[in-house]
Design goal:
single chain, mainly alpha
Length: about 475
């Protein structure tokens, strides 16, 4: 009984981030209007969170391994609550972005520490428990659009941050009462490596954003310097990780076919499934003219599709294996992105005269079914290669997905800014992402086929 209460507690933490993630997507247009800033700068409200997640996920995974799941989970909750208060009170876009960085530091710890907790509490049914855990997250994505749209229409965009405070405190109390204390373990945490990867991605994304404002030679020189700085930090990061005592990214593991293939897939998955979804409400509001509430409502079918499909796939995972659910799910996601790229009148014709809100919701349902098929299999595929390092591997996987998401948001907002119209900009973004998703199919076939085939690709034991 206790372990099911523990599962519920960590699921509530993940639920909190699910609600907040969809709410901020709906609020993006309101935030842009409120502060009177460009779509590129407003995009950093989402991108800053994704960037911080990218750097914090592998570090928090390691912290969770070393210091214990309970301490890590509760510390991340506190950071998330503090960041929410700061975001709600932010008087400028810059302070709001800073608050989102604090939120990202907290949010980055939920998934690695929670997966580690679930893996330890359910050792005999780890695959199924992690799969069920994947299906919990979309519940927040169902509630988030409805709650977020209503809060924004009724109280303004700051309400989506204030609501995190009481709910976060409730989860914090449950975690303090229920989670096992665990023990400290020996280990080294590679904070320098995390700073390097955050700096590299930050400079790269900053360079992309500055392109939107580069109207003079000096500005273009600054863009070039930012790109050069990003490249230099990347080189330093790779050299550091190769010699670090306990690197956040184990380059030797990543060189192995299954891990490398999985994380190539994760980067593109982050771009096509995580990053661009943050801009769907902005797309619906500006291209189809629907309300804030409706722009949130259309996200609900996607969340339902993810939850139901991932639940079913989790049960059948041993029978289905890993590759085919990932491939079919990826193709469905690519199809959804292609449908979004159609002109509004073409989409309405394809929808048989249905209202635009209904048609968009149906496309997102297809996307949700695709994600629901791919997520449980892709989440489990490489964890089973090294189950004793579940939290660390989850952190690396999350880092790759969030990096893809963060870069895709920056590239997408830059494309929107530079395009003749926001509709034509979105069309180009959707087509590019659909092609990128399909291009991952060779990587999918390099992953383990099924749990029964894990031994074929498991890393060799080191010689004594």
């Amino acid at each position: 009984m206790v372990r099911y209460l523990i599962f519920t507690t960590v699921s509530l933490g993940l639920l909190l981030t699910g609600i907040a993630g969809t709410s901020i997507a709906i609020a993006l247009d309101a935030i842009r209007t409120s502060f009177g800033v460009s779509v590129v700068l407003a995009g950093w409200v989402v991108a800053a969170f994704q960037l911080t997640l990218t750097a914090s996920l592998p570090v928090v995974g390691k912290i969770s391994d070393v210091l214990g799941r309970r301490r890590t989970f509760m510390a991340c909750l506190v950071l998330y609550i503090v960041g929410s208060v700061m975001a709600a009170m932010a008087p400028s876009i810059w302070l709001l972005i800073a608050a989102r960085v604090i939120q990202g530091l907290g949010g980055g710890g939920f998934m690695p520490s929670a997966v580690g907790i679930v893996a330890e509490v359910f050792p005999q049914s780890r695959q199924r428990a992690i799969g069920f855990f994947t299906s919990i997250f979309p519940i927040g994505q169902i509630a988030g659009p409805v709650i977020g749209g209503w809060l924004i229409d009724s109280f303004g965009w700051t309400a989506i941050f204030w609501v995190n405070v009481p709910t976060g405190l409730f989860v914090l109390v449950l975690a303090w009462l229920l989670l096992p204390r665990g023990v400290r373990r020996e280990g080294h945490i590679d904070l320098f490596g995390a700073a390097l990867i955050a700096g590299s991605l930050g400079l790269f994304m900053g360079a992309l954003s500055f392109i939107a404002y580069a109207t003079t030679a000096k500005m273009w020189v600054m863009v070039g310097m930012l790109f050069a700085g990003a490249a230099a930090l990347t080189v330093v990061f790779l050299r550091h990780e190769a010699t670090a005592k306990s690197p956040i990214v184990d380059l030797e593991i990543l060189k192995r076919g299954p891990f490398l293939a999985a994380n190539i897939y994760n980067v593109v998955y982050g771009a096509g499934v995580i990053g661009i979804m943050s801009l769907i409400p902005l797309f619906a509001i500006n291209v189809y003219g629907i309300s804030y509430f409706d722009s949130g409502l259309i996200l609900v079918p996607r969340a339902i599709g993810v939850m139901v499909t991932s639940f079913i796939v989790s049960i059948l995972l041993m029978r289905l294996g890993y590759r085919w659910p990932i491939m079919i799910g990826t193709c469905l996601a690519a199809l959804s992105l292609f449908l979004f790229s159609l002109e509004p009148h073409q989409l309405m014709t394809l929808g048989g005269g249905l209202e635009s809100t209904t048609t968009l919701a149906l496309i997102l349902l297809v996307m949700g079914i695709g994600v629901g098929m791919a997520a449980p299999a892709s989440n489990n595929a490489c964890i089973e290669l090294m189950p004793e390092r579940a939290a660390t591997i989850t952190g690396i996987r999350g880092m790759c997905r969030q990096a893809g998401g963060a870069v895709s948001i920056t590239l997408a907002t830059l494309t929107l800014h530079e395009s003749a119209s926001i509709a034509s900009g979105f069309r180009l973004v959707f087509i590019a992402l659909a092609i990128a998703m399909l291009a991952t199919i060779p990587a999918i076939f390099a992953m383990p086929r099924s749990p029964t085939c894990i031994d074929e690709v498991k890393p060799a034991e080191p010689k004594p």
